[in-house]
Amino acid sequence: MKETARRAAIVTGAGGGLGAAFATGLARAGLSVLVNNRHRGDGAPSADALANRLTAEGLSAAPDRHAVDAPGAAQAIVEAALEAFGRLDVLVLNAGINGAAGKIGAAPPEDLAEVMAINFFANAALVSAALPHIQASPAGRILFVSSTAGLHGLRGRAAYAASKGALNAYAVSLADEQRRAGVGVNVLMPYAETKMTGGAAGDALIAFPPERVAPAVEWLTSADCTDTGQLWVAGGGRYRRAFMVETPGAGDVTGNAAWIADRRDAIADRSEARIFRGGEAAFADMLGDVQAMAKG
């Protein structure tokens, strides 16, 4: 096992597209990077090709060919990073699949299971394997690469949207748990032209190369970034923040369905929307409103 003062990162699904841009950006920012991408046995391994290009630039990189959802892969990937670099500071969870297109009710259950296995459960396993080492880092960072489909849904891709929605909730829960430990956990939802997007938006995605998302990864995984539990959207060099909010709403202990119907606009008024750090805080806020309402 090597010992190094350089921060070390794992980037999954880094054989091309967004993952390759993320791994390249981090390596050029001075990190040692384990370039992970599954090798199906045909042609040259993409992880090796990128790692070789980075080392040819005088950067620090090593390849890993595990499929993230393979049995034992999570521990093996983490061990590969430790063997190559002697430490682990950053985990970028980028590997994922779209799954088959199909409307709810028409798609077989196996499609949902396959997407969840890679997009959610494999990422959860990697977090469990990496977390002790991330916690030992003076600036441990975990970045989940998700999708706005997990916020807004996606017609014909419910399995994909569900996997990303689960990932978002998992990430913000992890951020809350790790806040005191100093581990930064955030979510990045990118828009980019890649093999996964498959030309779905036509020529519009020409303005969305993966390299224009990479700066967000560099920032959110840096030692200088102390933000945690945040949802970021990036694409084409533009950056946004996303929030889960609740309206103050309205209430009446004697209210019935007709009462709700008459006040649905007031209940939906977002002018004073509230943001909470976790479900416990959201319930405490609702409890306060109900108690105040009961007092008249």
Automatic annotation (TrEMBL):
Domain Ketoreductase span(s) in chain numbering: 7-193
Coiled-coil residues: none
Record keywords: Oxidoreductase
Superkingdom of the organism of origin: Bacteria
Keyword tRNA processing on entry: no
Molecular function, one GO term: oxidoreductase activity
Protein family membership: Belongs to the short-chain dehydrogenases/reductases (SDR) family.
Protein name: NAD(P)-dependent dehydrogenase, short-chain alcohol dehydrogenase family
Species of the source: Allosphingosinicella indica
